Amino acid sequence: MMIEILTSLKTDAKTSDEKVNKNKLLLDTTRHMDAVLDGMIYFADKLITAGEQHDFTKIQYFPEFHKALESGNIKNQEWYKRHISEERHHLSAQPPKDVNLIDVLEYIADCLMAGSARSSKVYDITLSNNLLQLAFDNTIKMLQKEILVKEDIKENE
């Protein structure tokens, strides 16, 4: 789903050196608010999808998951290697190259929910500044790919 936005070159101090038409300013401001909402809905949809798909490898490969848990050495099992490579939220073990802030939020939710349910404690969770910056940059790129800028034909009137 592309997010369509119209140009509004004359309604911001950064892009206009002219007097701003009051009606155009109001129109462009509400358009901007709608566009930001569309961007936030895009992120919300991504978050919901991540939540719905969380730990899918535990179900998809349930016999292997069960066997790995029973082994007493889960991290050396093939299932675990598959789990951390196919699931995006295992940021401390194997972050995806295109890690994004959706992955970061899923990682936080996973750690807090698992720790709380299993031991009523949450171990220290950290991510490097480099990984967080990469996630930030990749999230920008992710949203940029969804934006389609159209010229407002009334812009030059």
If you had to describe this structure to a student in words, what would you say it looks like?
The protein has 157 residues and is mainly α. The protein folds into two domains: 3-11 and 19-54 and 89-148, no CATH class; 55-88, no CATH class. The protein is 58% helix and 5% strand. The protein has six helices and two strands. It has helices at 22-53, 56-60, 62-71, 78-86, 101-119, 129-144, and strands at residues 3-6, 147-150. A two-stranded parallel ribbon has the order 1-2. Helix 1 packs across helix 5 (101-119) and helix 5 (101-119) packs across helix 6 (129-144). The protein is elongated and about 70 Å long. The protein starts with a strand and ends in a 7-residue tail after the last strand. The model has no long low-confidence stretch (mean pLDDT 90).
Give the neighbour order of strands across the main sheet: 1-2
Tell me the total number of β-strands.
2
Estimate percent helicity: 55-70%
Average of per-residue pLDDT values? 90
Q: Name the structural class.
A: mainly alpha
Strand percentage lies at 5-15%
Specify Rg, calculated over alpha carbons: 22 Å
Summarize the helix and strand pattern as letters: EHHHHHHE
Number of domains: 2
Q: Count of DSSP helices?
A: 6
For the report, how would you describe the main beta sheet? 2 strands, parallel
Measure the end-to-end span.
30 Å
Shape descriptor: elongated
Uncertain regions spanning at least 5 consecutive residues: none
